[in-house]
Specification:
The protein is an alpha/beta fold. The chain has 6 helices and 5 strands, in the order E-H-H-E-H-H-E-H-H-E-E. It is globular and about 40 Å long.
């Protein structure tokens, strides 16, 4: 099944100790939310080599743009589960596109009934 990578998995994949996560990035079933691209590339202290790596990731992986259905679903998730804005948009993207979500922060999403959440780091 196709899956959505959360921002933290993309960030961890840069580190040598988590290089096994790079296999997820090159998997043809992998997608990311535009929100993750903003979260990762918008970090104010990003080093030049990190920026290059993440730019390459986002140039390779299909990026799902938020649409009205995602925004509406995100509103519902924020209200129901008191999620942060980014998490509600990423969770909504996974729900709208019927994707599993891969994240290290499973607690952010595990309360969402119809969302399958996996931690690839354990």
């Amino acid at each position: 099944m196709a899956f959505l990578l959360d921002s933290n998995i993309i960030i961890y994949s840069y580190l040598n100790e988590f290089d096994f996560l790079r296999k997820l990035i090159i998997d043809q079933s992998c997608m990311v939310s535009e929100i993750s691209r903003i979260e990762v590339l918008g970090y104010h202290a990003l080093k030049k080599e990190e920026d290059k790596y993440f730019q390459d990731v986002f140039a390779y992986v299909p990026i799902l743009l938020p649409n009205q259905n995602i925004f509406n679903q995100a509103i519902n998730l924020r209200k129901k589960y008191n999620l942060k804005l980014g998490d509600s948009l990423i969770g909504a993207t996974a729900l709208v596109y019927n994707l599993n979500i891969y994240t290290r922060n499973t607690a952010d999403f595990e309360r969402i009934k119809d969302l399958k959440v996996f931690n690839p780091i354990i």
